[in-house]
């Protein structure tokens, strides 16, 4: 294998809708360019912590911004624990940061409250908003307004063990779901591993669940017990019942990447964060990646994305836009995502970094254009928790999938109502 290195929550509180004045004491323009008269400004940017290596690259990215915008000082405020709880509390108290991270999973609830500044009046033609992958941008849009710009993303693709495939007489990864089912049986029978490793949670399975026309949620209520969703997910249960699929816990692993790296699964649907883990932890493992198998001829994957959003109460909105527009513009995005920890959300930056030609990362970059984003409605946290509890019960054979999902849906909707 050639290795290439290219240089989730509480229910949202109802927040009072707040406005804010747009004066920030400077003369910056809406396109993010520096004004001729630029008084010193301090901005606060809130986000969560990450690994030391990621933090180093992100801090370097902020330093680059401040070098090019010397009138702006950015103070990065790391919220180490209970990020959204702390952020909501600060928003209610009127002391939240000027700009902050917002996960797509949490975005729907916050976009309805009025605490986020719509960005459309700041976005100019030369910012080229059309360069963003549509699913990632749409996760932060509501009722025709744009409330955030995606800073990066991660997607799912197929990891497969090349040696196991060769031992089983298989040439290349499966291209369709039916082929993957066939491969899972062959690989299980030909190796000491399960053919397919499965992470049995909605965050990984949603695109599959909705592949037959069903919906996980409708009008903010759980609807995943529909016949279409049951039909879409039943093949996973069937693979488990036949002994061709397993979850990480079945083999004593903590997560999918570990299960695959230990050689306990020949195929695993996992995210691009797994790449560096495998390279560092299992350097002798012979593996490759591919786009996920199509379902009824349709491409599918999951995307997890985070945006920069502006506090509607910030008194430094023009400077805040300078920061957001540079970080999500081609230069700032390439600076951050070039470290290889996350994928760009702009197509042009993926091209610039050579991701579409990268043998390992190309499947993840390609998926950003068609993936289902892990976000939808304001009650997703409740829906997600109930789905996960009962789907796993069905996966372990404790009840039928139809009964499990109906029970989960009933409980979820009682909690919502």
Automatic annotation (TrEMBL):
Claim: Signal is one of the keywords in the record: yes
Listed InterPro entries: SBP
Record's signal peptide: 1-23
GO cellular component: ATP-binding cassette (ABC) transporter complex, substrate-binding subunit-containing
SUPFAM superfamilies cross-referenced by the UniProt entry: Periplasmic binding protein-like II
A GO molecular-function descriptor: maltose binding
Swiss-Prot/TrEMBL GO biological process terms: maltodextrin transmembrane transport; maltose transport
Keywords, alphabetical: Signal, Transport
Coiled coil: none
PANTHER family: MALTOSE-BINDING PERIPLASMIC PROTEIN, MALTOSE_MALTODEXTRIN-BINDING PERIPLASMIC PROTEIN
Family designation: Belongs to the bacterial solute-binding protein 1 family.
Protein name (Swiss-Prot/TrEMBL): ABC transporter substrate-binding protein
Organism of provenance: Paenalkalicoccus suaedae
């Amino acid at each position: 294998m050639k290795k290439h290195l290219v240089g989730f929550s509480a229910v949202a509180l109802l927040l009072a809708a707040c406005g804010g004045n747009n004066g920030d004491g400077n003369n910056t323009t809406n396109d993010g360019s520096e004004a001729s008269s630029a008084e010193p400004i301090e901005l606060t940017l809130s986000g969560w912590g990450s690994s030391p290596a990621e933090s180093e690259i992100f801090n370097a990215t902020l330093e680059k911004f401040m070098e090019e915008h010397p009138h702006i000082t950015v103070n990065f405020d790391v919220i180490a624990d209970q990020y959204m709880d702390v952020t909501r509390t600060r928003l209610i108290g009127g002391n939240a940061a000027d700009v902050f991270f917002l996960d797509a999973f949490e975005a729907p609830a916050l976009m309805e409250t009025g605490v986020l500044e719509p960005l459309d009046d700041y976005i100019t033609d030369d910012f080229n908003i059309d360069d963003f992958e549509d699913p990632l941008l749409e996760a932060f849009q509501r009722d025709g307004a744009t409330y955030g710009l995606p800073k990066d993303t991660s997607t799912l693709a197929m990891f497969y063990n090349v040696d196991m495939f060769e031992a089983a007489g298989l040439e290349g990864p499966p291209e369709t779901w039916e082929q993957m089912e066939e491969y899972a049986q062959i690989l299980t029978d030909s190796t000491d591993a399960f053919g397919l490793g499965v992470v049995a949670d909605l965050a990984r399975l949603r695109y599959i669940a909705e592949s037959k026309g069903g919906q996980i949620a409708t009008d903010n209520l759980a609807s995943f017990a529909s016949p279409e969703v049951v039909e879409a997910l039943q093949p996973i249960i069937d693979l488990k019942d036949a002994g061709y699929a397993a979850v990480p816990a079945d083999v004593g692993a903590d997560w999918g990447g570990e299960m695959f790296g230990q050689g306990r699964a020949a195929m695993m649907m996992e995210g691009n964060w797994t790449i560096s883990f495998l390279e560092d932890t299992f350097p002798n493992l012979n593996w490759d990646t591919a786009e996920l198998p199509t379902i009824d001829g349709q491409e599918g994957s999951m995307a997890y994305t985070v945006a920069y959003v502006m506090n509607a109460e910030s008194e430094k909105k023009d400077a805040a836009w300078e920061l957001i527009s540079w970080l999500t513009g081609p230069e700032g995005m390439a600076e951050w995502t070039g470290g290889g920890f996350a994928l760009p959300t702009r197509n042009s930056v993926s091209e610039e970094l050579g991701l579409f030609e990268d043998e390992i990362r190309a499947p993840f970059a390609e998926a950003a254009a068609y993936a289902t984003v892990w976000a939808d409605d304001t009650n997703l946290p409740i829906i997600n928790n109930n789905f996960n509890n009962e789907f796993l019960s069905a996966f372990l054979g404790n009840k039928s999938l139809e009964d499990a999902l109906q029970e989960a849906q009933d409980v979820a909707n009682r909690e919502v109502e």
